[in-house]
Amino acid sequence: MGSKRELLFITTNQHKVKEIQELAESESRNLTIVHRNYEYPELQLDELEEVARASAKYLQKKGVIQRPFLIEDSGLFIHALHGFPGPFSAYVFKRIGNEGILKLMAGKQADERRALFKTAVAFCEPDRAEPVIFVGTVEGSIADEARGSGGFGFDPIFEFGGKTFAELSTEEKNKVSHRSRAFRKLLAFLS
Ligand code: IMP
């Protein structure tokens, strides 16, 4: 049996680490995800792919990480709000939270509540000049009210298959989430 390959996951978000570590454990026998807590600037760009790419290149250029690593950027895109908050999700969540989103959605009916979660993962390794980007999405809708105590961020208001993501275990969320879909593409690439 060969030794396990280590991949650093650069993030300040412990919830994301838990999701990705569980997923790697259940879906890959030879990959270990190791958390590193480096801060990096997140540019306000229109596309999550470009945000993830710019963050990865910043870390590559700084030269602080001499091993294979990944970073990711995620966002919530609400159809009736023309994709808002999208790449500005972190800022909007900090300023108005789930309550604020629910207020913006007041009076909007079934189809108008459709929303998309998206993750862009950027994978880097020392002898690769450009980060490789993997994208995952999941279509759901904005719930009428916040429900559930699991997860983080917009999970209590993002509904998929009758439940909010905050009502799912990490294992259940990983079956369908944007993040897991992007990460599975990375796993396929690595194998
Ligand atoms: P970022 O990828 O950390 O920049 O995420 C942007 C915003 O979306 C933050 O407010 C996160 O809390 C939120 N967010 C990212 N991923 C998820 C998720 O899987 N569920 C719920 N909220 C998320």
Structural commentary:
34% of the residues lie in helices and 27% in strands. By secondary structure, it is of the alpha+beta class. It has one domain: Maf protein, CATH 3.90.950. Strands 1, 2, 3, 4, 5, 6, 7 and 8 form an 8-stranded mixed β-sheet that branches. α1 links the parallel β1 and β2. α1 packs across α4 and α1 packs across α5. The longest helix has 16 residues. It is globular and about 55 Å long. The two termini are 15 Å apart. The mean pLDDT is 94. Inosinic acid binds next to β3 and α3.
Can you tell me the number of structural domains? 1
Kindly provide the radius of gyration, computed on alpha-carbon positions and rounded to a whole number of angstroms. 17 Å
Mean pLDDT: 94
Q: Which architecture does the CATH hierarchy give at level 2? A: Alpha-Beta Complex
Topology summary:
Blueprint lengths: L4 E6 L3 H14 L3 E6 L11 H15 L6 E10 L5 E2 L3 H16 L9 E11 L7 E11 L15 E3 L2 E2 L5 H7 L1 H13 L1
Parallel strand pairs: 1-2, 1-3
Antiparallel strand pairs: 3-4, 3-5, 5-6, 6-7, 7-8
Helix pairs in contact: 1-4, 1-5, 4-5
In short:
The chain is of the alpha+beta class and 191 residues long. The chain has helices at 14-27, 48-62, 89-104, 170-176, 178-190; strands at residues 5-10, 31-36, 69-78, 84-85, 114-124, 132-142, 158-160, 163-164.
